[in-house]
Amino acid sequence: MTVSRAEYCVVACAEAWRGDGEILASPMGLIPSLGARLARHTFSPDLLLTDGEALLVGPDGTVEGWLPYRRHLAMVTGGRRHVMMGASQLDRHGNQNISCIGDWERPARQLLGVRGAPVNTLNNPVSYWVPRHSPRVFVERVDMVCGVGHDRAAAVGARFHRIPRVVSDLGVFDFATPDRTMRLASLHPGVTVDEVRSATGFRLVIGGSVPYTRDPTEAELRLIREVLDPEGAREREVRTA
Amino acid sequence: MSDKTMTPEGVVARLRSGMTIGIGGWGARRKPMALVRALLRSEITDLTVISYGGPDVGLLAAAGRIRRLVAAFVTLDSVPLEPHYRAARERAAFELTELDEAMFMWGLHAAANRLPFLPVRAGPGSDVMRVNPGLRTVTSPYEDGETFAAAPALRMDAALVHLNRADRLGNGSYLGPDPYFDDLFCEAADTAYVSCERLVGTAELTEHAPPQCLLVGRHTVTGVVETPNGAHFTSCAPDHGRDDAFLRMYATTPWEQFAERFLSGDEHAYQAAVRAWHKEREQQR
């Protein structure tokens, strides 16, 4: 069976929540949402999910809890949450920007704003999802640090800082290096190391032999295709090369 | 007990240029849009606006009424980036105090509790500290010795919020899933104005809804305004959803053109113009 790039991305995102236990999975964006629900359906059945508003819901939509914004923020600071955010820019230390491009005083492009990235990164695990891996996203220096990276977290003594992984349309990345800089952890099948290198605006740590992102099981593929995303919206967010 | 009902114009008559105004709701959800529209019809300007920003910020920014914005984001939800806010920021049309969402919330709590600040584990390490050089940190006096951001109280001259139901005394209830932070906005302000979908008798507030839906208490409310569909085009569940078609038109129409068609008359004229726009659109399909 042919597995699409988008489906590898869903599996790679799902893996972020493996072993997380009874915590809230907060996915931002389509592919991370499919990943969180895939994890909930399979290897991380204790995860909590929201309906995108103020309710905690089971896989069939059964309401099991109430989580308005003020309680959501308490969940963040209590640490019982693992969010996967987007990133308009990301540097090798994991500093993330979603606020603006260019000079903050008068930005070339105003984006969303810092949102909850500062509180997230200082309190609960934060992973990132980048649907188009390019040197414009993976930059030497981000223009406005919203999510706090490893270098800055260390400088302020952040006790609960953790960035488990970054998933892009090309591969999976982590910070399992002596100086906590970004490392290529796995390539999605069909992608080469050179492709990743040239699409990254900083010097990425790349080991001698990089594994491929794991294949979905048949049961997982069936879930993705028949239950979680029967319309195939995932293929519009990430196209197979 | 006093009847606090007034018109949108009556609310705006109590506001002045240069004031700090808090606006409740979140993004494109339960925004007091009828009151914002009334504000746009006035000459009031030079405002400091405190908001979990949505089209309230976009409209006021496009009309040049904001001197300083205090926000963690501005979004239209179904259109992620607010185009009028973006345009205003990209021409540096006003000052921005960009805070993290949690710092913002603790700032509201601090103001509601008459505290100068509250400590929050957010900010250090991020550029929120760089772009807000006035922000201070505070170190735990206990053994842990951790350093926190001291989120400053977000005290305001007036708060504007929109609820589902209210009585004439200023008690208000929300019937949707999320209270947002509207009660805190009212408690953090010297005066607070509540617009509502429907004005009801006090007894009716708890006739069909549990008492915990009573979000805003009359002791924190200065005026009450009945504005059916007053959150349009943001959502006000369960009374009405977000008007995504209108929202997309708002996001893609030049400001002058939008303002001329929809904002030149009073609230009744606005609601009529919206109905006419939808009718036209249906006929074109």
Automatic annotation (TrEMBL), chain A:
SUPFAM superfamilies the UniProt entry points to: NagB/RpiA/CoA transferase-like
One Pfam family per UniProt: CoA_trans
Superkingdom of origin organism: Bacteria
Record-linked InterPro entries: CoA_trans_fam_I, NagB/RpiA_transferase-like
Keyword Nucleotide-binding: no
UniProtKB keywords: Transferase
A single GO molecular function term of this UniProt record: CoA-transferase activity
Family per similarity comment: Belongs to the 3-oxoacid CoA-transferase subunit B family.
Name by which UniProt lists this protein: Coenzyme A transferase
Organism: Streptomyces pristinaespiralis (strain ATCC 25486 / DSM 40338 / CBS 914.69 / JCM 4507 / KCC S-0507 / NBRC 13074 / NRRL 2958 / 5647)
Automatic annotation (TrEMBL), chain B:
Coiled-coil stretches noted in the UniProt entry, renumbered to this chain: none
UniProt name for this protein: Enoyl-CoA hydratase
Alphabetical list of SUPFAM superfamilies matching this protein: NagB/RpiA/CoA transferase-like
InterPro entries: CoA_trans_fam_I (IPR004165), NagB/RpiA_transferase-like (IPR037171)
Source organism: Streptomyces pristinaespiralis (strain ATCC 25486 / DSM 40338 / CBS 914.69 / JCM 4507 / KCC S-0507 / NBRC 13074 / NRRL 2958 / 5647)
Keywords in alphabetical order: Transferase
Annotated GO MF terms: CoA-transferase activity
